[in-house]
Write a structure and sequence with these properties.
With 462 residues, the protein is an alpha+beta fold. Residues 1-23, 450-454 and 456-462 have low confidence and may be disordered. Strand 2 (77-85) and strand 3 form a beta hairpin. The protein has a domain at 2-65 and 125-159 and 211-279 and 320-452: Outer membrane efflux proteins (OEP) (Up-down Bundle), CATH 1.20.1600. Helix content is 64%, strand content 13%. The strands form two sheets. The protein has a four-stranded antiparallel beta sheet, with no helix packed on it. Its main location: membrane. Residues 69-97 are annotated as: Disordered. Residues 160-211, 324-351 form a coiled coil. InterPro entries: OMP_efflux, T1SS_OMP_TolC, TolC-like.
Length: 462
């Protein structure tokens, strides 16, 4: 029981050191995730990119509506001169002013464009949906980075504490060896071995401190705030019982795979658009104009016209056929990209699953190894005291205990991160699915025009 208690104290030492560093309350994993969700620049940039993509659908829907334009002009003219009359043999002066005014209004309404307008709208909608899935993928990536850096800081803090404790133990071991050497119980070789182990431990401590600093820097990059004191993480969210269930769920919900499917759909609509160029176009144009004071004051001339126009492509030098072939090739490319995305999802789920299962096994085995190595170290130290074991035997036993402790804290970190990587591969690591206490970014509501005009997504006078 005492050794189990000792193990718990050692493993908690890094977290305790961080928690006692000041009076600041320890930061939880949920708070870390909220920081990343609200402030990470990569995620903010992806949201802005999606808002730009949303405008493509509005632009495509504008093709259904008429275009209306108005014009107005006013001219001020002044003329003066002299005219000679041969009849009266006199010269007459003249002067005149005119202010003609012209007003016009025209409107053009597409009637039929070979299905290109509907194709463009459907294509833009698919692109928007692919963009939303890409945003979801980026969101999950950022949150997983937050989880990873959170656990890295905690792991590296524990590693520093364990290695610091090892340096202190080896320093005591060296002092004891020097005392025993002075009374002739051991040789100079034993002292040199203790000195070498202490020097190595000090170097490893410096490396661990550098790694902790790097992990803290990564944490600050992801969350925007330094990692001062981090509390123990909560239990993992519920995970599937087997790999098959995880993969099946991922095939229906992975944002990476869904984005590829929407991109394939967009490429299919691009073929419709290209084929529409082979069909005729029908449009209707109406115009009205009014002229005032064009010839003399009070002169009024009004006119109005309406015209229907049909345009049929006959020969374009092979341009339209080439565009169709290009669109078909792009659709084939998108189809293969869906297959590749499915394989990548399968790989990600498999790696995360076995990483999680393996780390759980390592946790259990390393926990048992720590207890066994503590017992072994006690025995070796007692045997060395009576001269049965050498100083090197003691140093080796201490090293084995150290390695088992480091393996344990690393496996704890790895299992937790692997669990979240599995959630990410399945498409279950978004802020909403993790239940974060944040204002969830609504990609659909972010488009204010969509909220104001759900049918057209635009104002008629845009």
């Amino acid at each position: 029981m005492s050794r189990l208690k000792s193990l718990a104290l050692v493993l908690a030492a890094g977290a305790s050191a961080l928690a006692l560093a000041g009076t600041v309350q320890a930061q939880t994993l949920e708070e870390t995730l909220a920081l990343a969700y609200n402030s990470n620049p990569t995620l903010q940039a992806e949201r802005a990119r999606l808002r730009s993509t949303d405008e493509g659908r509005i632009q495509a829907q504008a093709g259904r509506l008429p275009t209306v334009s108005a014009s107005a002009s006013i001219t001020r003219s002044h003329s003066e001169g002299e005219s000679f009359s041969s009849i009266t043999n006199t010269t007459n002066s003249f002067e005149s002013d005119a202010t003609p005014k012209n007003f016009g209004l025209s409107a053009s309404q597409p009637i039929y464009r070979g299905g290109r307008i509907d194709g463009a709208i459907d294509q833009a909608t698919a692109v928007v949906m692919a963009g939303r899935e890409s945003l979801r993928a980026t969101e999950q990536t950022v949150l997983i980075q937050a989880v990873t850096t959170f656990m890295d800081v905690r792991r590296d803090g524990n590693v520093v504490e364990i290695r610091q404790n090892n340096v202190e133990v080896l320093a005591q071991q060296l002092r004891a060896a020097q005392d025993r050497f002075e009374v002739g119980e051991i040789t100079r070789t034993d002292v040199s071995q203790a000195e070498a182990r202490l020097s190595l431990a000090q170097a490893q401590l410096s490396a661990a401190q550098a790694q902790l600093a790097a992990s803290r820097a990564a944490y600050e990059r992801v969350t925007g705030q330094p990692a001062a004191s981090l509390s123990a993480p909560p239990a993992l969210p519920a995970l599937p019982d087997n790999l098959a269930d995880a993969a099946e769920y991922a095939f229906d919900n992975s944002p990476q795979l869904l984005a590829a499917r929407y991109s394939e759909e967009a490429s299919q609509h691009a073929i419709r658009i290209a084929r529409g160029a082979l069909r005729p176009e029908v449009s209707l144009t109406a115009s009205a104009s009014s002229a005032r004071d064009s010839s003399f004051s009070g002169d009024v001339r009004d006119s109005a016209s309406i015209m229907g126009q049909v345009s049929v492509p006959i020969f374009t030098g092979g341009l339209n056929r080439s565009r169709i072939r290009a669109a078909v090739a792009q659709e084939e490319q998108a189809r293969h990209q869906v297959r590749e995305a499915r394989r990548q999802v399968t790989e990600a789920v498999t790696n995360a699953w076995y990483g999680y299962v393996t780390s759980l096994a390592v946790i259990e085995s390393s926990r048992q190894a720590v207890v066994a190595n503590e017992i072994a170290l006690d025995g070796v130290q007692q045997e060395a005291f009576v001269g049965i074991r050498t100083t090197l035997d003691v140093l080796n036993a201490e090293q084995e205990l150290l390695e088992s402790r480091l393996t344990f804290v690393t496996a704890e970190r790895d299992s937790f991160v692997a669990g979240y990587l599995l959630l990410q591969a399945m498409g279950l690591a978004s802020a909403e699915q993790l239940g974060l206490n944040v204002d969830i970014y609504d990609a659909a509501a972010a488009d204010s025009r969509e909220s104001r005009f759900p049918n057209l997504d635009l104002t008629p006078w845009d």
